[in-house]
Amino acid sequence: MADLETSRSNTKDILRDHARRLFAERGYEGVSMRDIAGSVGVQQSAIYNHFASKQHLLVDLMVDHMEDLIRSMRAAVDFRATPREQLESFVRFHVNYQLDNPDALFIAYMELRSLEPEGRETVVVLRDEYELALRGILDAGDAAGEFEVTNPAVVARCILAMMTGVTVWYKETGPLGREAVVDVFAETILRSVGCSSATAEC
Amino acid sequence: MADLETSRSNTKDILRDHARRLFAERGYEGVSMRDIAGSVGVQQSAIYNHFASKQHLLVDLMVDHMEDLIRSMRAAVDFRATPREQLESFVRFHVNYQLDNPDALFIAYMELRSLEPEGRETVVVLRDEYELALRGILDAGDAAGEFEVTNPAVVARCILAMMTGVTVWYKETGPLGREAVVDVFAETILRSVGCSSATAEC
DNA sequence: GTGTCCGATGAACACTCGTTCACGGGGGCG
DNA sequence: CGCCCCCGTGAACGAGTGTTCATCGGACAC
């Protein structure tokens, strides 16, 4: 229980951190308010001083995450570069972000079903915005003749699914270094759009 | 509720069908025995005439599914063919199977966390067996010089994650036909291992 | 016809769920 | 000092959880 209170962490942030980890581990329905409170080391009723309900807590986590994800992605990808460079930046950013924030991304993609309509709407809009950025890169590469993608919409989703699944099996302590994993993803995905880094074509 | 009893469907099978759908929709923790019973149209206590507990019901669903998946995969892939042909068969089989049985596969990959240790062990062994079949194809193709895969273990998981995600977004009623989706997957994945169907290389 | 057994019932068990509320302590501001 | 207002407590609420059990109808074997 209980973090040593590093720097300026108030109860609300600590609650967020523990809730995020627990939701990712056992799922929204599998975690009780008592679990969250117990993990932090407070009473269950204390949570309601910071979040109106369990549902609001989930929405708060998901929206905060999606907004940060989109902001970070925009900072990491230079949209004036060539499609090939954009795609590689996007992939390297996403896999790294995923490995830094495995729980947040996992929740955002898995717990949509646990959201009540109004919250779901908000999150879906943000998720579509992110997906559309990748799709835009594929479209541009296709139009420029750099990529060969039969169907950008489908391929975009394939690529996201592939990358989002990484946290299910990757262990930081495993035989494979993080940089190596990122490289494999970058190469595999560039290849999948007909644009290998080893090829002279690009 | 209640199916009209098509052909020879007994209560146990009907329970399985409804439980599978509900688990996939709302998650194991999000579904109560009363939900399942209510969906079928019987009392909750009737379930215990067929399954010892909710946990046993989940294990039953997952093991049955994994065994059928492996059996069907072995029947669909000709392991005497070339690695390229094997991979294409595997991908086409998996995507089709996924679209035929979206709930079962989704549960098998998502609800591992809801399994108690003994059941999880059984399912993980089966899942590894399936994954290993794909990895074997990649290894063979790599050794034969047909594929270029930096790391077969990682790429195998990437491919599975990509394919397993299809049910999240694919709608049978959407603009894209099922055959078209399968084609996109086959082409994208063959490309990702450096072996495009359009290329003379293979 | 009689006996057996499978399977469904509905009430009940002890427990956990999300949420509410009256209460109190302690720090900041007038 | 006196006031208020965060923010925490602990007990309680009604509802829902998985599971058990005595009971009973009806199909099948002899």
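Residues 67 and 126 of chain A are 7 Å apart (CA to CA).
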